[in-house]
Amino acid sequence: MTYESLLKALTGVMTISGNENNALTVVKELVGTYFDEITADNAHNILLTRRCGREFAPKIMLDAHLDEIGMIVTGVTEDGLLSVSGVGGLDKQLLPGADMWICGREKRIYGVVAAHPADLLRLSDEEKKPTYENLRIETGYTKEELTELGIGVGTFVGYNSKITSLANRRMAGKGMDDKSCCAGLLFAVCETDREKLAADITVVLSAREEIGGNGANCAAHAIKPHIAIVTDVNFAATPGMEKKYSGKMGKGPMVSLSAVTDRRLTEKILHIAKEAEISVTTVVEATNTGTNANALVFCEAGIPAAVVSIPLANMHAYNETLSLDDGESFVKLIQAIITDPDLCTDFIVTPYEGGLRG
Amino acid sequence: MAFGPSGCEGEVMNLIREQIQPYADRIFTDALGSLIAVWRGTGDFREAPEGEIVPKKLLLAAHMDEVGFMINDIDENGYLYITPLGLKDAGMLAARSVSIGTERGTIPGIIGTKPVHVSPGGAKMDSLYVDIGAVSREDAESMAHIGDFGTYRSDFICFGSRGLLKGKALDDRAGCAILCDILRELWEKNERYPYDICFAFTCRNEIGMDSTRTAAYLTEPDYAILVEAGVAADVDGIAENKQGAKLGSGAVISYTDGSTVYDPAFTNHLIATAKMNRVVYQPLAGHDDPGNAKMVMNTRAGIRCASVAVPVRYIHSAGSVMQESDYDAVKSLLRAQLRRMHI
User: Fold this and answer.
1) CB distance B159–A109 less than 8 Å?
2) Is residue B4 one of the residues assigned to a domain?
3) Which residues in B lie closer than 8 A to residue A317 (C-beta atoms)?
4) Contact at 8 Å (CB) between A329 and A277?
5) What angle do CA B154, B156, B157 make, to 5 degrees?
6) Does some domain include residue A355?
7) Residue A202: which CATH number?
8) Is B76 in the same domain as B60?
9) Which positions in chain B touch A316 (Cβ < 8 Å)?
10) Is residue B159 part of a domain?
């Protein structure tokens, strides 16, 4: 198992928001033996716990969301064209001509988004602007046949793009947001000796982040961690992106400086990175990290959290692009964090005499 | 699947040449890069009905090129900027998986797009760039150069229950494939007509510089049929008067294109051929694909020109769609037409 193989396996599964449990089998197969407990909760989160083996050990929650953006069928014409609505924030301009998977009850079928040549058809500006009202997906089946395949209103539709390997270990594909972090967390924990863990670690592959539903909160309620590290992709510095709000690909993970997150924990992470000689960049996200951390910090009586990211280009497109070097540095950073013996010291609250929380 | 943006048709040409070399009486390329194959006639015009004109030479033409782009700049971070070739809509390219033809073969790239969070629908043609993984200008220049061509990477997929085919460049590889099929069939049956047939596989159609004209000059036909991909937009959501050709409704026989009116007598003759042979066809007037016919018609002392097309949906996108039965209809129509060229 490598970071790359794990990432490829995870992006190969269709986990549009609400369908996260589609990945449960694959996750169990790939990393099941490394964890003491694996549960899929009612919010569709997948929780994987690896214990350090010490009594009264603190608890760390490592979060990465497992869901990806997609679409849902809102109508079917007689000749088998699907109309859709977005699940999460898609750039509709990019959809015409794109390959799709239509996730029917019986099987997954191919579809392509209608892409009319506006110049040849003399379409007006209004007609050529892709909206969920005018986008259609071609299936090649009739409505009747689609019904037999279990495809109709409510069927999920996802990106159907192959992994592309570019020079310098850059890789493009669908669902890198946020499976690049899911793979990173799982790999980091699997590759760390139990005895070295600073705490009991629960990796939460959280649900419904892309629709703001925040499955991570439900997981936190169940785990009651002392600290949480939320990991998600962040904007890579590509042409046209403001430098201060983005991170350069290949320069390592990004650490968020924000009023939302816990500054002591964040600084500790930066310190750990420096000690371990892992290149990281920082990014300011003053009042909104755009991640599960926003709500997670107010979960229960409050959870100190930090946000660590992998820079990603073309976010939410079907060819999200990252550097595998960044992914592997991310793994190293997570390993350094979860093996730091002092990590939780400052964050252990002891409300009652005679024991730790939980 | 072959790589062939306008001006860079070599790979497509080699592929076609490999296919048809054994069947052609003569095969050659012209100065602009068209591939021309000749199927000789018997030269015996005695059977022609009295008073009717029989061509001495017929030209069947299809273009090899597809829409794409060219690298026009490389920035200090190793991103490649592009000029479109035959494409007007930035959305067709943004975020696509693409190939770039370099000295050392094609390499993969991804067209960059600003995240939807920052700039929804914001892709503009002049800000599109390709990420090939390069980390600096020098790094990029070791892989690709200004002037290199590029186009979509898109799998050829059969889908659905009525023989739909999806791929890039169906405009006009569908036409190229039909011409290859016809030449092979003529050879298999050693079907000779009085007149010569020239099969021209031409270049640079998508940028309006089609080499059909020069192929026509060189081969001196008196009749020509352009075998094209016809714009079909018969899809829910498009106003009925803009829908153009219909998928599954057979060979498109065009009266006009964006540039000219085809020879009406020849066009009507094709329609009669379709009717006589029970080939499924659809007459079409006024779709706006500025074809190459105008230039062909005015070549030398004038050439009688008609157009037959395979209806293709989503033309110029990475996901163009056609139906197998339409392909077969165009082929049957042309085969039937070859047998009755007395006009």
Assistant:
1) yes
2) no
3) 94-95, 113, 115-116
4) no
5) 120
6) no
7) 3.40.630.10
8) no
9) 115-117
10) no
CA-based nearest distance A273→chain B, Å: 23
pTM of the model as a whole: 0.93
A69: Cα within 13 Å, side-chain hemisphere = 20
> How many other C-beta atoms lie within 10 A of the C-beta of residue B323?
24
Domain boundary pick from B152, B178, B194: B152
CB contact under 8 A, B110 and A164: yes
Instruction: State whether A145 and B161 contact (CB < 8 Å).
Output: yes
Q: What is the CATH number of the domain that holds B310?
A: 3.40.630.10
Is B92 a member of any domain? yes
H-run or E-run covering A101: strand A99-103
Q: What are phi and psi of B145, to 5 degrees?
A: -130, 160
Selection from A194, A198, A176, A201 nearest residue A49 by Cα: A201
Q: Contact A97/B313, CB-based, under 8 Å?
A: no
Tell me the pLDDT of chain A (358 aa) as tens digits. 999 999 999 999 999 999 999 999 999 999 999 999 999 999 999 999 999 999 999 999 999 999 999 999 999 999 899 999 999 999 999 999 999 999 998 889 999 999 998 888 888 888 889 999 999 999 999 999 999 999 999 999 999 999 999 999 999 999 999 999 999 999 999 999 999 999 999 999 999 999 987 799 999 999 999 999 999 999 999 999 988 899 999 999 999 999 999 999 999 999 999 999 999 999 999 999 999 999 999 998 899 999 999 999 999 999 999 999 999 999 999 999 999 999 988 887 655 555 555 4
CB pairs under 8 A between A and B: 206
User: With contacts defined as CB-CB under 8 Å, which chain A residues touch B233?
Assistant: 116, 121
* Cβ–Cβ below 8 Å for B95 and A315: no
Residue A358 lies in a domain: no
Q: Domain residues for B259?
A: 10-66+168-339
Shortest Cα distance from B214 to chain A (angstroms)?
Answer: 25
The CATH number for A100's domain is 2.40.30.40
Q: How far apart are CA A317 and CA B233, in angstroms?
A: 25
Which candidate in A106, A121, A178, A243 is best for mutational testing of the B interface (most B CBs within 10 A)?
Answer: A121
State the complex-level ipTM.
0.92
Number of domains in chain B: 2
